[in-house]
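Continuing from the previous page of notes. For each protein in this section, the sequence appears first, followed by its structure tokens. Read the first protein now.
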Amino acid sequence: MSLQAKILNLLSGINDPTVRMDVASTVNYLFNLYCSGHANESEIRDALYDVCLNVVRAMHPELTEEEVRRKSRTMVEEFIGAFKLESTRRRMFSRFRGRVSLPF
């Protein structure tokens, strides 16, 4: 699943446009920090965990605290995987930018 799809999945239950923009821009900012190397992976994980934890708590008040933590940890691992995949894809395409012709 792409990074944008994961962000949309995280935002799926949020109705307030301001909160949706704040969460999406925070995740994108963390991705840019990850790509640029200005923050290490553990710092990105901690920040993503905080974002996911707050969103899951707000969207699923019926879950116990342990279930919220487990769901948040799972989401963080999925985001980190998407970060790695997307950053690798960007590096690869930037390396071959002049040599690859797109069909459109």
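Done with the first. The second protein uses the same format. Note its length before scrolling.
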Amino acid sequence: MVGSKGIDLTTGPLLNISFHLLTSIAIFVSCLLLGCKSWASLVASILWFLSEQNMLVTAETRQYSLLGAIAIYFSASMIFFLNRPSLLSTLLVFFSSMLGLLTHYHFALLMTIFGFISGLHLLINKDKKAFLWIMLALGLSVLALIIIHPNFYMSFDRQVSQTQSFYLTGVFRRLYIFAESTISILWPVMIGFILLIYHYRSRIISIFFDHWHEVKILPFTIGALTIAVIGILYISFLSPHHAMGGKYLILATPLLFVSLGQMLNLVITERYRFGFFVIFGLLLIQVCLSIFSTKLFLEKQLYLSLRTDLSIFSNNSLILDSVARGVLPRILWHVPPFMPVWAGYQDTLQKMLMKNQNLSENILYVSNLSYGGNTLEGRYAVLKIFDTKGYNT
């Protein structure tokens, strides 16, 4: 909140919640655009909003909640264009894709997949004019990114610098993390898909291949493809070890919840009593999981707040081996104004520490291995320098 006291720790989460609410509204509208009944659209949007992983994303003051909102509005604008090609829908595609690219470089993945599949759809239907319009809109959004943010490529360079060397046992660990993340978010979609298979049985494969290029199938096709590509990049060590979880999958999960609304609309239409129990069960489980995960999160935050009460270290210097915006501001929030702070990545710190800087005898060392090429070996090297120079850490 912004007021006489400025910004406090609730500002980011409250803003993120508003973005999540906008995302839920977009899921509801997208379902309606695809012919779903209002009740199926509402259930899908509520299930996404209450997802435990998505709720945890709101607690972090980063742009991922905004990314999810822009991603689903971009998807809705693409669906709107494919259903009704016009100047208005083309402008919506342009502005939403431009905002997505300016928000986070991950958006380029969704835009590429959606553009490719949509282009195939238009070419199959021999609508060359609409194909040219949509390619123009997406191309102009990339041009706008280059003009507004010419150093955008640095995000990709930073991504490459954070990747780790490949090793076989790490593949299984990453595979487990990816499976855990997707299942914890997408379990309602998986149940909806199982119900769909049971409803259509042997016809499900032929139905999919007959209609894969149609607009109504796009949310599932593009959402699943985007999740698959994110997973492949992660499992093959092309993504950093920390780049998995709700905030990294939020690019595609809203689309898959749109497909959940479609599944519920197809399966439950003719079975009212059965459908009531399915919807009630899904909502009840989701609410229980959300309450349980929120309780665990609050307990963890309370524990961390007690640990980060740095005022008890009044005679110390703080050494922080990260200047990443996801680490440094969060640490500095708890640092007393009188405490000296030295911040830099591990290689910078090692050079600085070798020059007899004016540090207090007691040092509080805070280490984070998520960014800047920091390693466990680098952490030990810094600690060794402290020990060699006689600092108390």
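What the second structure shows: Residues 198 and 204 are 9 Å apart (CA to CA). Residues 272-307 form the longest helix (36 residues). We return to this in next week's lecture.
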